Amino acid sequence: MELEELDAGSTALVVGSEAERRAFCLRRLAAAERAAAAVLPSDPAGTVDAYDRAGGGAPLTVVLDGAAEGGTVATDGRDVRTVEVDAASLPAVGEATLGTIEADGSTAPVDRLWLAGLPGLLERASVQQVYRLLYILSEHVRRVDGLALYALDRSVEPKTARILRQPLDYEVSLETGADPAIRTLPGRAGDA
Amino acid sequence: MTDPGDGDPESKFRDVTALLDDWSPDPDDRGIEVSRGVREMLDGELNGGASSRWDRDIVERRRGALAADVTVNGEIAVAILGTARMAAVSSIRSRLALLGDRYNYLVVYWRDTADDDGDARRVIERRATARSLGVDEVSFVSAGTPVPDGPGDSGSFPTAGIAAGALATAGALGLALFLSATGVARGVDVVRGFPPLARAFLLGSGFLFLFALGIAVLLVR
Known about the structure:
The complex is a heterodimer. Chain A has helices spanning 18-29, 44-53, 90-101, 118-124, 127-143, 158-164, and strands spanning 10-16, 36-39, 60-65, 80-85, 112-115, 147-153, 170-173, 181-184. Chain A is an alpha/beta fold. Chain A has an eight-stranded mixed beta sheet with strand order 4-3-2-5-6-1-7-8, with helices on both faces. The termini of chain A are far apart. Chain B folds into two domains: 4-147, Rossmann fold, CATH 3.40.50; 155-220, no CATH class. Mean pLDDT of chain B is 80; it is low at 1-5 and 145-161. By secondary structure, chain B is an alpha/beta fold. In chain B, 54% of the residues lie in helices and 11% in strands. The longest helix of chain B has 29 residues, at 151-179. Chain B has helices at 9-21, 32-46, 89-100, 118-127, 130-133, 151-179, 181-192, 196-220, and strands at residues 59-61, 70-72, 76-81, 105-110, 137-142. Classes of the chains: A alpha/beta, B alpha/beta. The interface between A and B is medium-sized, with 30 and 33 residues.
């Protein structure tokens, strides 16, 4: 399967099991040209190793839940940067993620973003707050011609998925043993 | 950092309903202009005091038959409907059902109530409950003309009015009969002296009067 099905300057909701989401998103993260970011992955150390194995050559930023156990990442001389946040605060997660896109000059701005911790954010915040986060991140990702992948569990309520995908460009459905089904979404709002 | 109140979706729904309740479009605006006006008004009012980008509400105008006209934070849908007519009840109900399948909160804004059929509006509002639409909450507001908030309220008003009217009419008739009982008895005696053709004419006139009265009562309802 080609990796270029998702255009630069676009955003996608990726729905599947955790293993399927992780494999799909890491492959696309590894194709980053400037830099990549993984936000709130469940296994930060494993994520860095998997990024390397997938051939990721661009610098990687991992946004970590500061309160989670086993959240440390051994960089071992690799081009990996970590940022700790309070994952219970959506604005904190949002600002840390935006910080990877709006790089301050010390690091390159990311062109591949994977929001791995979306299911956890939905448990801690309202649908409206999460929608706001995805909307703001998507606007910034489009501006830098990047690609954002928002990973959602298949068990999420269908209406919640319908609400969250409104500001996005694609929905990717992952099924074991099948190619990813990529659907173009009807389009974003006329004007916000 | 997260303001607990900021995450209360019902509170935001009530804010949106109250803002729309106080708002009227420019009388010359139609269709897309009204939805633009709603979006601009909600954006200005909801975000007037927002200090950071994480406090701002995302107010968007949407396109397509399956979408709301305006949404707030993706979850609150505003459907702008024109004049309510009996012929359109079915299509309006279908549209609201579609929106109920896509959003958790629904505000229906009646754009033009001056020429609408009040019965059609009441039928729609009575049947489109939050439960039947599958949403957490639904509200109906209109441009200028206040309407009852809940479906139950909208159904109770006509019944109460008709009952009060019937009671007042019965009271007035009883009083008139009591006061004029003697006169009526004398009148009947006089009529008995009339030839059969004249009595039939009087009887026919009486029935015609009652028929006209019945039609008038139906029209008033």
